[in-house]
Amino acid sequence: MYNIKAHAKINIFLKITGHENGYHTLFSRFMRLDNLYDTISFEPCKCDSFTIEGMDDVDLKSNTVYKAFVALNDHTGNLDLLDFFYHHKVVIEKNIPSLAGLGGGSSDAGAFLRLANKVCDLQLDTPTLAQIGSSVGADVPFFVYDYPMANVSGFGEIIEPFDEKPFEVELFFPTIGCDTAQVYKTFKSDLLSNITPDKYIHWKELSSKEILTQTSNAPQILNDLYAAALIAYPDLKNEAPKGWFFSGSGSTFFKPYDIIASKKEL
Fold first, then answer.
1. How far apart are CA 225 and CA 191, in angstroms?
2. pLDDT tens digit sequence for 23-71
3. Which of 24, 171, 201, 244 is most buried, with most CB under 10 Å away?
4. Is 139 designated active site?
5. What pTM was computed for the model?
6. Is 3.40.50.2000 the CATH classification of the domain at 2-161?
7. Active-site residue 264, yes or no?
8. How many angstroms separate the first and last alpha carbons of the chain?
C-alpha cells in the first residue's frame, strides 16, 4: 500500500489584485497545517475504471483527485499510469472539513499528483507537476510544492517559499460552510471595484507574526474575501469569533496561540 498526507492550509492574508480572463488574481501567504491532513492511499484492487473510495458524497467527475488523474494522464499519456490504476484504487481518509477555506480538495489533488508521480516513476519535475495541478485548481500548485510557508500570487501558480517556521493555531469551524465559487462571484459583483492592489505589497517581506500582530484589532483587513463571504452568507456574522482571522474563502477562523491572547467571543 502507498500513502501520503494531504495537509490543510490557512491563508495568513489574502488580497485580491485584479480579475483577468474570468479569474481573480491574488496575493496571499499560505501556511501548511502539519497537524490537520487527509490521507491518500493507493490500495490493490482490480478496477474496471479509476476508483475512489472514501468520498461517496462527491460525484467522481467532480472530485479533484479524479480531475488530477485526468490532467496527469492527458499530459503524460503514460500507459503504466493507466495500468497502475486498473490494479489499484484510491482511498481517501477525510479529516479536513469541506467548504472551510482550508484547501482540502486542492490538497488531495496535489498529494495525489506527488504520489502518482513517485509510484508510477513518471519522473516529472515539481514545476511541471505544479503546472498540471494548476489546471485542476488555483491552490493545487502550493500543495504540489509542499512548502511549509509560501507567498502565492497570480492565479495561484506563482509560489515563492517564505523563510518562516509555521506556528500553532487554534481553528474555529462555524456551522455555515462557504462555497468558494459563490464567495468569489460575490466579491466580483460587490467589491472588486474597491481593491487597492499595491497597498499591502510590503507584506511580502514581513513575517506572518508581524502582520497578524499589526492587524489584530481589525482582522477583516487581512482577507478581502471575508467581506464577500459575509454578503453571501449573512448568518456567518453571528458565528464569527471576535478578533479571529478568516482563512481563504471561508468559513474557518484561526487564532495563533502565541500571538493573539484574547479569548474567543461570540
1. 9
2. 899 999 999 999 999 999 999 999 999 999 999 888 999 999 999 999 9
3. 244
4. yes
5. 0.92
6. no
7. no
8. 45
